[in-house]
Amino acid sequence: MVTEQELKSLIEQVMKDMGVNEKDNFKKEQVLEKVLNKNQYDDENIVDITAIDLKKQLLVEKPENKDAYLKLKESTPARVGISRAGARYKTETLLRFRADHAVAMDAVFTYVSDEFLKEWGLLSVNTKCEDKDEYLTRPDLGRKFDQETIELLKEKCDMNSQVQIYISDGLSSTAIETNAKDTYDAIVQGLNNYGIKVGKPFFVKHGRVPAMDAIGEALNPEVVVVLIGERPGLATGESMSCYMAYRPTVGMPESNRTVISNIHKGGTPSVEAGAHIADVIKAILEQKASGLNLKL
Amino acid sequence: MFLDGKGAKKYGKNPYFLAPFLNLKGEDYMKEDILSVGIDIGTSTTQLVFSNITIENRASIVSVPMISIVDKKVIYRSEIYFTPLLSVTEIDAITIRKIIEKEYEKAGIKPEDVDTGAVIITGETARKKNASEVLKSLSGFAGEFVVATAGPDLEGIIAGKGAGVSEFSKEKGVIVANLDIGGGTTNISVFKNGDVIDTACLDIGGRLIKINQKSKEITYISEKMERLVEKLGLNISIGSKVDKNELKKITNIMVDVLEEVVGIKEPSEELELLITNHDLRRDYEIEYISFTGGVADCISNQPENWFQFEDIGFLLGKGIRDSKLTEKKSIFKPDETIRATVVGAGSHTTDISGSTIDVSQDILPMKNVPILKLTEEEENINFNKIDKIIANKLKWFRLENDKQLVALAIKGLRSGSFKYIQDISKLIIKGMEEIINSDDPLIVIVENDMAKVLGQTLKTQLNNNKDIVCIDSIKVSDGDYIDIGKPLAEGKVVPVIIKTLLFNN
User: Fold this and answer.
1) What is the per-residue burial (b if ≥16 Cβ within 10 Å, else e) of A175-214?
2) Alpha-carbon distance A215 to A144, whole Å?
3) Rg from Cα positions in chain B
4) Which residues are adenosylcob(III)alamin-binding (chain A) (predicted)?
5) Which residue, A28, A284, B82, B89, shows the most beta carbons closer than 10 Å to its own?
6) Mind giving me the DSSP string for B307-357?
7) What digits encode the pLDDT tens for the residues A134-182?
8) Cα A179 from Cα A175, distance rounded (Å)
9) Domain hosting residue B217, numbered range
10) Which of B303, B334, B365 is the last residue of a domain?
11) Peptide bond before B365: cis, by omega within 30 degrees of 0?
């Protein structure tokens, strides 16, 4: 994004090149006002191409049987039936591809907003990662906490609860903002129905999945559950996973984790996933096992 | 590990899983067989089939289960019997029962082994006096979970599915009309891309007029045929000697009407006369036609004796072969002809619910539960008033029915918020107050995937004091009936049979 200052100097440069007097502040202000006045842009009628449902869009011209093609497309979000221009994609397909890629990038690089955490009243803690770059390049740090943070969790959160659920950005903050609250509420309702007690939730920034092991060791619940953003793809940036483990410990095998993935509006709806997860957690508690040791 | 590529497509974007798509213990994904029976008591023939319906969890271990029907196989076909009748209007229930008993024995299957299925009394026979009595005696015998009735529309759909017409239309992406021409009626179902888009039923069949082979006399004329004979001034009456040319005039009219109903000719008065319940809409172009039912076999076979079966089936078949039906439309040769309905009844009536549902223990199965469906308009525009709408519908329903059980059907949202679920649950409870206060379970059927969370919410709001059946991924219409079977796959799904009595778009 160009800052206002950069824009100003750019305009000055252009005006200078056009021979307008550098000192002519009035004219300069006039131009600047016009450029900066957003109302001047008419983007009302520009279609948001990411809003088009790819499953319902057929770009093939004169298809032999449009209905049958669309019926097939219902079963996949893949980019089929997009036609071509010579050996290349059509402009619309190319733009959509780049737009979807941008959505994925945004999902990774944005943070879960403070308003979201405040509204939910979640305590937010950080792993050992300082920023997104470190988070992406040092997976080992995304599963560890400072001693200070561990102490804070011990002080502010519930110790020894039956189930400890927490939320983590993972690789998609968008997924968390879109799904986490609904899924969480549905899980808690389901667990309450079974008379299972849930510890106070919190938020972990820059979190990798195995951070749940450190959480488990710190707070000592029976089951640790994390709702975490999945790495976005080109089909959706909103997909969330739920990982569960029975008494996880740092360094335990990955096969001890149970996971429900693909939670988003095009996959398993967030609330329905939550209701299902409640049942899975109940089974974990009953069998005192998770991952491949759990029989569902 | 990406051996079959199936999982890779679906979960390739998940960062934490490289390849958990195979069950690491080397087990197959869960498979379960359901044994289904189909019994068809038609105007002329009675048949039975047993089918294996296989369900399987197709989701990988990292997903919410997704159980679906993966295979349907007919494992036993009975002989084809002439339907035993006591008189022209009465089915011989005792003989039917004996036939069925014998076939169970031959197949080596006990009634208690049967999980699901359908007994269907089709065609003219359904209108006969003791049909419901016959069904009753068979229902108990044919397994715990069996449908008892079907209207002409459902029969047509069942025949079309049993004949593979639905599959064909889906594979080819075409519109196909299946004409199931039996002894008493012709049930028509029209499929587009695998879905039923229209149905109709006509009083056209091979045994609407019967002939005694020995005496060459006419022994039976159906009521509609009497009217047709009168209208055309033909020399056909009970006791009169058979005259092939006179009978041909009748079958020619039948063929004309078939041409009319599929849109080759303009509709005539005769079409009007021969309609059993309603006509096709014909606001689409039928590309393929297929023929099933007993008469279908008379189309291609040249008889030695035209009245070999003591009826007009062969004459009608010949008429169809020489008609514009085979000339103007492409013909699809179905997988089944005379057995289409019974195979459909055995293999294609049972469906399964979505895989995340909520059902109280030990309250299933349930049979013939009428559906109260909210329209989409009622759900979307008047959302805050749906409690009143539900209560009103329920009151109305009570006035017209003495049945106690009733299922509320809604579409629901594709991906509703937790608040939406709370709200709709409250409104449902308010609207269904009468049911809540009774001993009957609260049954809610949702089209979108939200039954588990809705079920849990209903339970929470009712303090776990009420039996609940909340299932999803099922599309029903107002006026349908539903059978819900005992849970399968460790309670993850329930089998359902939806009985559409009225088919209107």
Assistant:
1) bbbbbbbbbbbbbbbbbebeebebbebbbbbbbbbbbbbb
2) 9
3) 25
4) 209, 230
5) A284
6) TTTSBSHHHHHHHHHTSHHHHHSEE---S-STTHHHHHHHHSSEEE--SS-
7) 999 999 999 999 999 999 999 999 999 999 999 999 999 999 999 999 9
8) 6
9) 164-334
10) B334
11) yes
Cα-based torsion angle of the residue sequence A32, A38, A44, A50 in order, rounded to the nearest 10 degrees: 100
List the 14-73 stretch of B: residues with Cβ below 8 A of A: 14-17, 24-25, 62-64
Multiple choice CATH, A49-109, 1.10.357.10, 3.40.50.1820, 1.10.30.40, 2.40.128.460: 1.10.30.40
Give the residue from B283, B303, B334 where a domain finishes: B334
Tokens of B439: 């001993």
CB within 8 Å of A224: residues ≥ 6 apart = A164, A166, A212, A213, A215, A216, A244, A245, A248
At B3 the pLDDT is 37
The secondary structure of residue B159, as a DSSP letter, is: H
- Across the interface, whether the CB atoms of A262 and B421 are under 8 A apart is answered no
CA distance A232 to chain B (A): 7
Q: Nearest to residue B197, comparing CAs of B156, B163, B164?
A: B156
pLDDT reported for residue B49: 94
Specify the pLDDT at position B16: 39
Residue B461: C-alpha distances to residues A4, A195, B120, B356, B427 (Å): 55, 15, 41, 19, 11
Cβ contact (<8 Å) for A67 and B173? Answer: yes
Distance from CA of B428 to the nearest CA of A (A): 18
Residues of chain A with pLDDT under 50: none
Say if residue B140 is in the same domain as residue B171: no
The DSSP code sequence of B353-386 is --SS-EE-TT---EEEEEEEE--HHHHHTTGGGH
Considering the four listed CATH numbers 1.10.10.250, 3.30.450.20, 3.40.50.11240, 3.40.50.300, the one that applies to the domain covering A114-293 is 3.40.50.11240
Residue-level pLDDT at A153: 95
Asked if residue A144 lies in contact with residue A125, where contact means CB atoms within 8 angstroms, the answer is no
> Residue B424 domain-assigned?
yes
CATH number, position B180: 3.30.420
Average pLDDT for consecutive 10-residue bins of chain B (505 residues)? 37 38 46 89 88 88 85 93 84 89 92 84 65 72 60 85 93 93 92 90 93 91 92 90 91 95 93 91 94 92 85 94 92 92 87 90 85 87 88 83 82 92 95 90 94 95 93 87 86 86 43
Which of B21, B414, B418 to probe by mutation at the A interface, max A CB count within 10 Å?
B418
Q: Does the distance separating the beta carbons of B172 and A68 come in below 8 Å?
A: yes
Task: Say what the pLDDT of residue B5 is.
Answer: 36
> Does B25 contact A292 at a Cβ distance shorter than 8 Å?
yes
Phi, psi of B196 (to 5 degrees): -75, 130
Cβ neighbours of residue B233 closer than 8 Å, sequence gap 6 or more: none
Distance CA A217, CA A212 (A): 9
Rounded Cα distance between A192 and B440, Å, is: 25
pLDDT value of position B200: 93
Please report the pLDDT score of residue B142 as a whole number.
62
d(CA B471, CA A76): 25
- A193 closest CB neighbour out of B173, B449, B456: B456
